[in-house]
Specification:
- By secondary structure, this protein is mainly α.
- It has one domain: MFS general substrate transporter like domains (Growth Hormone, Chain: A), CATH 1.20.1250.20.
- Helix content is about 80%, strand content about 0%.
- The chain is built from 17 helices and no strands.
- Helix 1 runs parallel beside helix 5, helix 2 runs antiparallel to helix 13 and helix 4 runs antiparallel to helix 5.
- The longest helix is centred in the middle third of the chain and has 33 residues.
- One of its GO terms (cellular component) is plasma membrane.
């Protein structure tokens, strides 16, 4: 793997860790210190809503300008949020609109960085190494997020609010400095026969996603999974520890470590081993959804902290196996000239349901019980797992060889793959 890959991924991992640290500090403070799960849900809903809005507005930029510079600017915006947070807490004067502005800044950064970093991968990694590159990518992205949550909670409990936020700010600064060493070959501008307006490019991106049926239906399935899983990791675990087990933040970290271990195990061993012994990628994707549902049902049926640890480990393992199988394929199948935008639309679609998931969980916990919602979530994923195989062309796509995958969406769905052609916006 080339140095550019590791520079990009280490910088992204530190950025993700820092951002999730700050968010988790706010969340754990709201749940454990203020006893307000609905406030915690509102923070997360704002964060993900900002990712959706800014991701949609900024999605064409990756195909217009240099991706490395855009990532640098996004990270800079997050840094502004960190400095504001440090200043406010140091002054012991938390101004609520400014507080939510910080959350929005972090959401904007996270809306830009991952999709652009993923879109760069095929340009800095050889095709034969892309599977391995995505194994490391999803491993590092997941670990960065989970470590950020864990360290944020522990640092708040042990070091206090101010020191915890300063620590997160330091990681963000280091991420930005590492990014300065990233060297990506300058991309040639894509010239089309028809000049497109900025807003039309956004519209074109959504239409193209819909016309690539595998992409469209996979986005919907992944969005539903994220609607369920994200609130469990970020709200259900802290609530279970604080209000059901009646324990401190160390137990939250234990559960995050369980998920992290599942992610590590899935990314570095299980997925590769299962592919090696001949298990089809389609079978792995379908089974992963089933295991996600079973894991969440175990969370609903048992209050035992050991059962929760085991269930969360299998949840993390199932998520990462599923992601690697699909993302290593679709990242190449997207025609190169549309990769940045379609990667952004992909992430936006997944995130579109997340604010609703957080708001639902926060309000449901306040009014009913955590277990009843988890039970419903587990059943939903079990049902969805039976429909994954019916996504158009998905099974064929996942069975294609590496040398057949380049721009495969265009040929599979009979759409143009040439960079000098604009997409016909009329329905086909």
């Amino acid at each position: 793997m080339k140095n550019g890959f590791w520079i990009l991924r280490i910088s992204e991992t530190l950025s993700t860790t820092a951002n999730k640290m700050l968010i988790s500090i706010f969340i754990w403070f709201s749940i454990s210190y203020v006893s307000s799960p609905d406030e915690a849900s509102s923070i997360y809903a704002t964060y993900f809503l900002s990712k959706i809005v800014f991701g949609t507005i900024l999605s064409p930029l990756g195909d217009r300008f240099e991706k490395r510079k855009l990532i640098f600017y996004a990270n800079s915006l997050a840094l502004v949020g960190f400095f504001i947070a440090v200043y406010m807490i140091n002054q012991k004067n938390i101004y609520v609109p400014l507080f939510y502005a910080i959350v929005i800044f972090l959401g904007c950064c996270d809306a830009i960085y991952p999709p652009l970093a993923n879109a760069i991968l095929p340009d800095i990694v050889e095709k034969k190494n892309l599977d391995l590159a995505y194994q490391y990518t999803f491993f590092l992205q997941s670990i960065g997020s989970l470590i950020g949550i864990s360290v944020g909670i522990i640092s708040l409990d042990m070091l206090g609010l101010y020191v915890a936020v300063v620590l997160a700010t330091t990681l963000s600064i280091v991420s930005q400095l590492i990014l300065l060493f990233l060297n990506v070959a300058k991309e040639k501008p894509i010239i089309r026969s028809e000049s497109l307006t900025y807003m039309r490019e956004i519209k074109e991106s959504f239409i193209l996603t819909y016309k690539y049926k595998s992409e469209f239906y996979w986005n919907l399935a992944a969005s539903l999974a994220n609607f369920i899983v994200a609130p469990i990791i970020s709200i259900a675990i802290p609530f279970f520890v604080s209000h059901i087990l009646m324990k401190d933040g160390g137990y939250v970290v234990f559960y995050e470590v369980c998920i992290s271990f599942g992610v590590i195990l899935g990314a570095l061993y299980v997925q590769k081993k299962l592919i090696y012994i001949g298990v089809k990628k389609m079978t792995l994707v379908k089974s992963s959804f089933s295991f996600m549902g079973i894991s969440i049902l175990l969370l609903a049926l048992f209050d035992n902290y050991i059962v929760w640890g085991g269930a969360l480990l299998f949840l993390g393992l199932s998520i990462i196996v599923c992601n690697i199988c699909v993302e290593s394929v679709r990242s190449i199948a997207i025609p190169k000239q549309y990769r940045s935008r379609l990667q952004t639309i992909h992430i936006l679609t997944i995130l579109s349901s997340t604010p609703l998931g957080f708001l639902l969980m926060g309000n449901w916990i306040e009014s009913y019980s955590l277990q009843s919602l988890l039970f419903a979530f587990g059943l939903i994923l079990l049902v969805v797992s039976q429909f994954i195989i019916h996504i158009p062309k998905m099974e064929h796509l996942l069975s294609m060889e590496e040398d057949e995958l380049e721009g495969a969406y265009a040929s599979l769905f009979c759409l143009p793959n040439e960079a000098d052609k604009s997409i016909n916006l009329k329905e086909t």
